[in-house]
Amino acid sequence: MKKFRLPEKLRFGLQDLIELIRETTINLGLWGRGEAKTVTHLIDEVNCGECTLELKDGVLYRNIEVVSITIYYQEKKILILRESEQIFADGRPRNRNLPDYCSVAEKMKIGKETPLEAALRAINKEELSEIKDVPVTKSQLQYIHTVQQENHSLSYPGIITHKTIHIFECFFTKDQFKPKGYTEIQDDKITRFRWFPYIPSQPE
Predict the structure, then answer these.
(1) What's the confidence (pLDDT) of residue 10?
(2) How far is CA 115 from each of CA 78, 90, 111, 147, 184, rounded to the nearest angstrom?
(3) What pTM value is reported for the model?
(4) Which DSSP letter does residue 201 get?
C-alpha cells in the first residue's frame, strides 16, 4: 500500500501524480472531458490540503472530508436552496448529482479546520459569498451527523473517492434571503443556486 501525504513546504506535482497513476489502469485521456476535472484540479486539491491520495492494490483512492449543508428559508412556506447548475470556464456543464438535502457542499482543509469552521467558510466566503454583509453565524448551523461514503469519482475517472461527510442544517434570515438565488464565480467555473419549495420525504 502506498499512501501519499504532502510533506511540509513541498509541493505535489505532475510527476508525482504520474508515478502513482503508473501503477493503476487510470486513463488520463478521460480527464478534462464531459463532467470530469483536469489533472491540474487534482494537483491543486492535494497542495491546498483538500485531499490525500492512497494507492492500494493498484487502485488509487482520493480521501476527502466534506461539509454538506441543507439551507432553508421560511416565510409563508419553507424553501430549500439547491445547486441549479455548474459550468466550467471552457463552457462544459457539470451535473454533480448532489443529494436533494444538500444545498452547499465544500471540501474541508484536512487537519486545518473543524467541520463547523468549514461550514461557515463554505457559506460566507465561498459558495454563497453574496451574503457577506449579513454572514451566517455559528448559532444558525445545526450539526446533524457524520457519514462515510465510497464511490467511483465522476471528477477523476478511474479514482475511488472516500468521503467523510459532516452534515449540517441552516435556516437563513430575511436579510440573508435572496429570492433570485446566488451565484459563485470562480476562475475555473460558475455555480448557481436557486430556491425550491421544500417537499418533506415520505416514509417508505
Answers:
(1) 60
(2) 26, 32, 10, 13, 21
(3) 0.83
(4) P
